[in-house]
C-alpha cells in the first residue's frame, strides 16, 4: 500500500522500533549474548555494566518486550538476537522448574532462583506462547507454575514465599518460615499475579489461577504492604515503600478484579492508586520509594501506573483514560532516549572487562532505551537528597517502557460487544478504523473508518469541555455536521457518541486546545509546568544535564509526513 499523508505526531509503534534498536544493541557478544543491565551515560566515555539481574529478569523482559514491539510495528529487526535471548532464557531453568541466576566470571555472586526474576520469566513465556503457540514455551511455563506453587508456604487463606532467593536445596532457612520473616510480599508475590492470571486465561492452568488468588488475599488482607487508607507502608522491611513493586502489585490485582468482576477488589485498587497519584506529577514522574531512592524515578513505575489506570478505566472509572494519555504523551515519551548528541562514546575496547564492563559504542547501542532513573525535568538524576548519581539506564526499564508503549497502543482503540471505543487520542491504525491525531498542535482528530461499525464512541479530553466540540462526517458525496451541545451525544461525561459508522467514512472531530500552567510537586520540590492540551511543552526550572521537555512542539499548524500505520492481522491483548 502506498504511503499517504499522516500527522507527524507521536506514533507509539515507531517508538517500539527505536526500542528494538536498544534491545538488540545491549546484547553482549563477548559474553554469550547476555545483555548489559546498566549504563552510565554521564561518564566520559559512557560505559555499560552487567549485574546479577542479567539472567531471568533481563532475558524475560527482553523476550516479552521484543515480542510486543514486533506486534506493534511489524519490524523483524534483530530476530537473531531475540532467538538467542529465548535460548538463554530456557537454559536458566533447572530440574526443579525454577529460573536461576548464573555465576558471573568477574563478580562472585551466589547462584539462586531470585523470586523477583520469576515474574519476568513467566511474562516472557506467556507472551511467547500467546503469539506463537510454541510448545517449548508452554512446557517451560507449566513446569514453572508448578514449581512456584510447590515452593510456596501455604496457610489457610494466604500463600507466600519466606525469602527472596530459593536454592536447589530449598529455602535457606526453615526458621525464617516459622518466624514469618518473609521479605517484601509485593515484590515476590503481588507482582506475580499479573502473568499468572494471563497464563491462566490463555491455557486454563488451574495452579496459576490458584496462586493468583492466594497471593492477592495475602496482599490485601494480611501483608501490611498497603495501609488502611491506601498509602504505602514505608518501613524498611517493605523496601521503604518502593513504588515499582507497589504499583506493579496494583496492576496485577486490578487485572484479577476486572477478570472476576469483583467491584470490591477494583475499589481497593482505586483507593491505593489515587494515593499514589498524590505522590506523582500529573505528567507521570513518580518517586522511586518514599525515602533514600525517593528522587530516582523508574520508568517501570510509570508503566505500572499506565497499566493500572487502563484497567481502572476499562472497569468503568473512565476518568483515568485522561491520566493514562498524559503519562504516555509526557514522561514515557520523554524517558525514551532518542537524542544522544550529548553522550561521549568510543569504539575502543581496550579498557573493556569481558563479562562485566564495556565502553564500546554505548550511545549507538542504547538509542531507544528508557531512563532507569530520571528527575522530573532531567534524564540524568543527581539529587543531593537522594543517593546522588548512580546509573542512567536499566534494562528492566527498557523492557517496561516498551510494554508501556504496547499498553497505550493496544488500548487506543478497543472493541466490546460491537462498540468501538477510541480511548486515547493517539495516532494508530486498526482493523476497524485509523486514528489520525493532530494533537498537540491542533484540537483535531480524524477517523478513517475501515469497516462498518455498529456503535462508535470517542473520548474527548476533559479540558475540551463539550459546547465547542464539532464533528464532520463525510462518505462519498454526503457530508453532515454535528456538535457536542446535544445531550444525547455523551456517555460518562467523556465519550462522544457517534452511533453507527460505515466503511469508507471519514469523521473529523475538533475542539479548542487548553493552554495552562500548573505547579507540580515532586518530593516537596515545585516546578512550573506549561501545557498545550495534554502535552507538557516546558518545565521551569529546566534540567542541567539532559533537560526534559525542552524544544517540544509549540506551533499551531500540524506538520504532515508520508507514512502508513501497521495493522496486525490479529490483536493480542495483555
What does this structure look like?
The protein has 15 helices and 25 strands. The chain is α+β, with helices and mostly antiparallel strands and 574 residues long. It is 36% helix and 18% strand. It has a domain of 101 residues: Immunoglobulin-like (Sandwich). The model has no long low-confidence stretch (mean pLDDT 94). The two termini are 29 Å apart. It is globular and about 75 Å long. Strand 17 and strand 18 form a beta hairpin. Helix 2 packs parallel to helix 4 and helix 2 packs parallel to helix 15. This is Glycosyl hydrolase.
Shape: globular
**CATH third-level topology of the domain at 414-438 and 443-512 and 558-563:** Immunoglobulin-like
Ends apart, CA distance between termini: 29 Å
Strand content: 15-25%
Indicate the CATH architecture of the domain at 414-438 and 443-512 and 558-563. Sandwich
Radius of gyration: 23 Å
Compute the average pLDDT. Answer: 94
Strand order of the largest sheet: 12-13-16-20-19
- Identify the CATH class of the domain at 414-438 and 443-512 and 558-563: Mainly Beta
How many helices in DSSP terms?
15
Question: What's the main sheet like?
Answer: 5 strands, mixed
Q: Please estimate the helix content.
A: 25-40%
Total strands: the figure is 25
Low-confidence stretches: none
Structural class: alpha+beta
Protein name: Glycosyl hydrolase
Organism: Paenibacillus solisilvae
Biased composition (Polar residues): 520-530
Biased composition (Basic and acidic residues): 554-574
Amino acid at each position: 500500500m502506498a504511503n499517504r499523508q499522516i500527522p507527524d505526531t507521536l506514533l507509539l509503534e515507531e517508538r517500539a522500533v527505536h526500542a528494538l534498536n536498544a534491545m538488540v544493541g545491549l546484547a553482549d557478544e563477548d559474553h554469550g549474548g547476555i545483555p548489559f543491565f546498566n549504563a552510565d551515560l554521564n561518564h566520559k566515555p559512557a560505559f555499560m555494566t552487567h549485574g546479577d539481574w542479567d539472567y531471568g529478569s533481563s532475558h524475560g523482559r527482553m523476550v516479552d518486550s521484543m515480542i510486543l514491539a514486533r506486534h506493534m510495528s511489524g519490524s523483524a529487526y534483530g530476530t537473531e538476537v531475540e532467538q538467542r535471548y529465548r535460548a538463554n532464557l530456557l537454559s536458566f531453568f533447572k530440574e526443579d522448574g525454577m529460573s536461576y541466576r548464573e555465576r558471573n566470571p568477574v563478580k562472585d555472586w551466589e547462584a539462586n532462583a531470585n523470586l523477583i526474576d520469576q515474574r519476568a520469566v513467566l511474562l516472557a513465556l506467556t507472551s511467547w506462547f500467546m503469539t506463537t503457540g510454541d510448545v517449548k514455551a508452554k512446557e517451560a511455563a507449566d513446569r514453572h507454575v508448578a514449581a512456584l506453587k510447590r515452593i510456596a508456604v501455604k496457610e489457610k487463606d494466604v500463600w507466600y514465599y519466606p525469602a527472596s532467593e530459593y536454592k536447589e536445596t530449598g529455602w535457606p532457612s526453615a526458621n525464617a518460615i516459622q518466624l514469618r520473616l518473609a521479605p517484601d510480599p509485593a515484590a515476590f508475590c503481588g507482582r506475580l499475579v499479573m502473568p499468572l492470571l494471563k497464563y491462566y486465561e490463555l491455557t486454563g492452568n488451574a495452579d496459576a489461577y490458584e496462586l493468583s488468588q492466594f497471593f492477592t488475599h495475602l496482599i490485601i488482607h494480611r501483608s501490611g504492604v498497603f495501609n488502611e487508607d491506601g498509602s504505602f507502608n514505608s518501613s524498611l522491611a517493605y523496601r521503604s515503600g518502593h513504588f515499582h513493586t507497589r504499583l506493579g502489585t496494583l496492576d496485577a490485582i486490578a487485572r484479577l478484579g476486572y477478570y472476576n468482576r469483583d467491584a470490591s477488589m477494583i475499589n481497593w485498587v482505586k483507593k491505593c492508586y489515587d494515593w499514589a497519584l498524590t505522590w506523582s506529577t500529573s505528567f507521570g514522574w513518580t518517586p522511586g520509594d518514599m525515602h533514600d531512592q525517593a528522587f530516582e524515578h523508574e520508568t517501570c513505575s510509570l508503566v505500572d501506573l499506565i497499566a493500572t489506570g487502563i484497567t481502572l478505566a476499562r472497569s468503568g472509572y473512565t476518568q483515568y483514560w485522561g491520566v493514562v494519555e498524559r503519562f504516555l504523551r509526557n514522561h514515557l515519551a520523554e524517558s525514551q532516549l532518542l537524542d544522544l548528541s550529548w553522550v561521549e562514546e568510543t569504539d575502543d575496547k581496550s579498557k573493556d572487562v569481558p563479562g562485566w564492563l564495556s565502553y564500546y559504542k554505548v550511545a549507538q547501542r542504547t538509542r531507544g532505551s528508557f531512563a532507569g532513573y530520571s528527575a522530573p525535568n532531567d534524564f540524568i538524576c543527581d539529587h543531593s537528597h537522594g543517593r546522588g548519581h548512580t546509573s542512567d539506564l536499566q534494562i528492566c526499564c527498557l523492557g517496561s517502557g516498551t510494554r508501556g508503549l504496547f499498553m497505550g497502543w493496544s488500548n487506543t482503540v478497543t472493541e466490546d460487544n460491537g462498540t468501538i471505543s477510541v480511548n486515547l487520542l493517539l495516532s494508530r491504525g486498526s482493523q476497524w478504523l485509523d486514528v489520525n491525531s493532530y494533537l498537540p498542535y491542533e484540537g483535531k482528530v480524524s477517523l478513517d473508518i475501515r469497516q462498518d461499525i455498529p456503535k462508535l464512541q470517542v473520548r474527548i479530553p476533559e479540558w475540551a469541555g463539550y459546547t465547542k466540540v464539532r464533528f464532520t462526517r463525510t462518505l462519498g458525496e454526503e457530508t453532515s455536521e454535528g456538535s457536542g451541545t446535544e445531550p444525547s451525544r455523551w456517555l460518562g461525561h467523556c465519550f462522544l457518541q457517534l452511533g453507527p459508522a460505515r466503511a469508507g467514512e471519514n469523521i473529523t472531530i475538533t475542539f479548542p486546545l487548553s493552554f495552562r500552567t500548573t505547579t507540580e510537586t515532586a518530593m516537596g520540590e515545585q516546578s512550573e509546568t506549561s501545557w498545550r492540551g495534554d502535552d507538557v511543552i516546558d518545565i521551569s526550572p529546566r534540567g542541567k544535564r539532559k533537560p526534559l521537555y525542552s524544544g517540544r512542539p509549540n506551533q499551531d499548524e500540524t506538520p504532515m509526513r508520508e507514512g502508513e500505520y501497521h495493522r496486525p492481522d490479529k490483536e493480542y491483548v495483555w
